[in-house]
Amino acid sequence: MSAGAQAPPTIHPDPSLQVHGTLREFPTASKVIALHHSVYFLAAAGLVVHIAFNGRFGYFRDELYYAACGQHFAWGYVDHAPLAPWLAQLSRTLMGDSLPALRLLPALAAVAKIFLAAWIARELGGGKLAELLACLAVLCAPIYLTFDNLFTMNAFEPVFWMACAAIVVRILNGGDRRLWLLFGFVAGVGILNKHSMLFFGSGIAVGLLLTAARCEYRHRWIWIAAAISFFLFLPNLRWEIQHGWPTIALLRSVSGTKYVDVSAWEYIWQQSLLTNPVATPLWLAGLWYLLRDSAGKKYAVLGWAYVVVLVEMILLHGKIYYLAPAYIMLFAAGATWIESRLLACTARWLPYLIAATLLVGAAVAAPLAMPILSAEATIKYTRFWGVKAVHVENVPQGDLPQLFGDMFGWQEQVSSVASVYNNLPAVDRHHAALLAHNYGEASAIDYFGSRYGLPRAISGHNQYGLWGPRDYTGDVVVAIGFTEARLRQSFGEVVPSAQLSPRYAIPEETKLTVYVCRGPKESLRSSWSQWRYLN
Questions:
Q1: Are the C-beta atoms of 456 and 488 separated by less than 8 Å?
Q2: What's the CA angle centered on 197, arms 196 and 203, to 5 degrees?
Q3: I need a labelling partner for 329 at 20 to 30 A (CA). Which of 345, 408, 490, 522 fits?
Q4: If we measure between CA atoms, which residue out of 368, 374, 375, 394 comes closest to residue 502?
Q5: Alpha-carbon distance values, 348 to 53, 127, 344 (Å)
Q6: Cβ–Cβ under 8 Å, residues 391 and 402
Q7: How far is CA 451 from CA 331, 447, 454, in A?
Q8: Which residue, among 235, 130, 140, 246, has the nearest Cα to 192 in the 3D structure?
Q9: Confidence check: pLDDT of 7 > 80
Q10: What share of the chain has pLDDT > 90, as a percent?
Q11: Which three-class secondary structure state does DSSP give residue 125?
Q12: Helices 153-172 and 179-193, interaxial angle, to 10°?
């Protein structure tokens, strides 16, 4: 060293970065992206599974509803946020109306969940084994098999939650604090997908306050992120305000009536059914790792976020699957704990045993979560396992669980309505309204009706009720889903014109009669409040 030159400063490693006496290097972006090859294999397997089985039965009620809402662009809808309808319309525009086409985006969401599980496991300090176990647990979880086999906002919800979780962990690992801006954007779009993003956001906020990561509140980036999220949510919020908070009115209407109300203990233990009982020890280990383990407590924000949202869901009587998106990060944490703690003192066959157990559990649960078997075989299988004891809505159950029963009968309904409509005199067809009792029946007419030359349906149920009776007077109405007694309250002439009872459909969509109604006692517009209902 030349005279006068200064010696380089001594660098003292941060003790908080040491794990088991060795300095753990922060994962770099390249390391996060360079995941183990098994992750790509499992992601491909997830895509193949969903593409192979997502066209086996038929369209789910809510899929038809999102498609109908997508044809009416808005910043909000009575019973859901706007992103899913927008995506449904985009999918139909680019790929058509086939069932596999509609369900391609959810299948891709399954791939995203698996990659996020690996990413989070890597960020938590896990290696290739942790990545493998985390991804396998996500691939095999019954609730994700269900979510990703249907086009609903539930398929995309975990992607937004876990992308935010991954960003938080990256920041905790020394990532640029400007990543909070990305968090704000993802969270904002997540709110536009499903308002439950607000609950996860509150969990992260409380988790930061309860841990050493509260120092993040001293920096401007997290506050700018909150502003970004609010800015993205604002159009939807304005829509809610302008329409009198219909989503809150709906939640009040269904609380304790349509939705099954379970005790706190039931809510907690039924979480194991969503993730598969054999996988429950894995995510419980993840919760322990995040909240109690010396190596994992650095990421306790995620553990507290889970606890906060769990408490919120119990207090607000949320459906049991509302917490489902959070288990991806718990699987990743549990896999990391197993890799770092147990494998050092146990036989090498343990990971293979865990993987085999997850696969066996998935093989048992998969026919209960997605349509793998025929309808008849599914009925026998569900009866064997007693799965009908677990349901989230207070509606009569048929031979099939509601999940599968709601995939049957819609095209038969539309065919019967079309037969009655097309047999009307031409002068009546010109101004006849197609009135459906619920949004499933109405959206089925809107989805399949064009092939029969049918006009769009009207209904008083949820979002359809907000759209109103359009320009129909009610002079001639073809009605489905109503009792004759209800229709006679509003029409002087009610004629049964067709009957149908689709096999395997849920009870409320069987033994239906299609009526032709004339002689309205008052116009549809003036009586529309009598037809509208939230449920």
A1: no
A2: 100
A3: 345
A4: 375
A5: 35, 15, 9
A6: yes
A7: 46, 9, 8
A8: 235
A9: no
A10: 79
A11: coil
A12: 160
Q: Which residues of 387-425 are buried (b: 16+ CB within 10 A; e: fewer)?
A: beeeebeeeeebbbbbbbbbbbbbebbbebbbebbeeee
Alpha carbon distance 26, 340 (integer Å): 16
Count of H-run helices and E-run strands, the chain: 26, 7
For residues 335 and 126, the answer to whether their CB atoms sit within 8 Å is yes
How is residue 286 written in tokens?
Answer: 């993840």
Show the tokens assigned to 430: 């010109």
Task: State the DSSP string of 160-197.
Answer: HHHHHHHHHHHHHTT--TTHHHHHHHHHHHHHHH-TTH
Provide φ and ψ at 436, rounded to 5°.
-110, 150
Beta strand 22-23 with 512-520 is unpaired
Phi, psi at residue 401, to the nearest 5°?
A: -60, 160
Q: With the C-alpha atoms ordered 194, 195, 199, 200, is the resulting torsion angle positive or negative?
A: positive
- For residues 118 and 422, what is the distance between their CA atoms, to the nearest angstrom? 55
In Å, the largest CA–CA distance within the chain is 108
Would you tell me how many other CB atoms lie within 10 Å of the CB of residue 277? 13
Average pLDDT, the chain: 90
Q: What Å distances lie between residue 333 and 7, 23, 72, CA to CA?
A: 42, 20, 42
Read off the pLDDT band of 351 (50, 70, 90). Answer: confident
Q: pLDDT tens, 30-64?
A: 444 467 788 999 999 999 999 999 988 999 999 99
What are the structure tokens assigned to 195, written together? 């308002």
Residue in the block written with tokens 């997605």? 370
Dihedral pair phi/psi, residue 235, rounded to 5° = -60, -40
d(CA 273, CA 262): 14
Q: What residue has token string 């401007």?
A: 220
Q: pTM of the full predicted structure?
A: 0.89
Distance from C-alpha of 421 to C-alpha of 328, rounded to nearest angstrom: 49
Tokens of 54: 């997502």
- Which one of 18-22, 52-56, 286-290 scores highest in mean pLDDT? 286-290
The number of residues in the chain equals 535
Q: Nearest Cα to 409, choosing from 497, 480, 482?
A: 480
Query: Which pLDDT score is estimated for 319?
Result: 87
Q: How far apart are CA 374 and CA 382, in angstroms?
A: 12
pLDDT of residue 16: 36
In contact, 406 and 396? CB cutoff 8 Å: no
Query: Torsion-angle region of residue 318: left (phi > 0), alpha (psi -120 to 50) or beta?
Result: beta
- Chain-centre distance for alpha carbon 505: 23
Cα separation, 344 vs 186, in Å, equals 38
Kindly give the pairing relationship between strand 458-459 and strand 433-436. parallel
Paired tokens of 201 = 């956001």
Asked if the model's pLDDT at residue 281 lies above 60, the reply is yes
CB neighbour list of residue 83: distance below 8 Å, 6 or more residues apart: 153, 156, 189, 192, 193
